[in-house]
Request: fold
Amino acid sequence: MKLKVQVLLGVAVVFVLALGANLNNYVNAEDQGATGATSEDTGLSVSPSIDKLGYLEPGETYTREITLVNSGDETRTFRVLTSSFWVEDEKYEVKWGVSESQYGKIASWTDIDPIKVHEVKAGEQYVFKYRISVPKNQAGGAQRLMVTINMGVTGGEKFINTETHINTLVFANIEGDVHSGAEIVSQNIEGFSFTPSINTISTLKNTGDVDLDVTYKVAVSNFFGGDEVYTTGEEKVLMTESARSFEQKWGDAPMLGIFRVKQEITLMGETHEFNGVTIICPLWLILAVVLIIVAIVVYLMYKQSARKRRARD
Reply:
């Protein structure tokens, strides 16, 4: 019987180690699948990709410029178009086109010629300017514009669009009778993780009529000792009539550990701080502990049963 118990313990250990290896391989494959996809490299880039104009005065005209860099090996032709844009969910998936929203009127105030064809040679850059003329009677509030560089080819006198395009998102607020407001709808620091990662997420909602800048920071430190091991931050726009989820993930955390996590959300000049603790422990290790405990219990039960038999004899 003692030999059987030892065999049981050995089988449990081998099973746990094999399970742990399989689980680790599965997680790595998932990570590679999530990050391995890349878009086709066109050799084109635009600056700025996001242009924050701040507050604009009604009746005034503002000149902006966008730089297109062609680091490819061939000359590219393009047109410049303008449109409204909006988001459809908390992840801020951008949609664009014609919109009747009061926040998209700026597209009609912009003097970009959508017919004119521009050309940028290989290894060079092209800078073009455009003007925004704000009407004198324009009410205060947010305005948003998408400037699209639409690549194409020329065939005779015709310009044929291709699927390649690069966008610049333009954010502006018009001075006037405006209201700024926002709220933190939800906030979460992951308390337990089976994989070597720490995740945080917060959802914010804009309750006013102007777009707001939000700064989101995360700092991770060792639970014992307090040494900071990871920090990151980003600044995003929180658009009117929308809620936005801010997510941060530390994907290179150790396989096992206890960490203090601090979230800082700066909104409308006020910083909100949230603190939590995340425990990282792989599932295979938990199963190992459970199986070892079960094996020990079985062994102790066997020992007790053996003593009783000897006592009766």
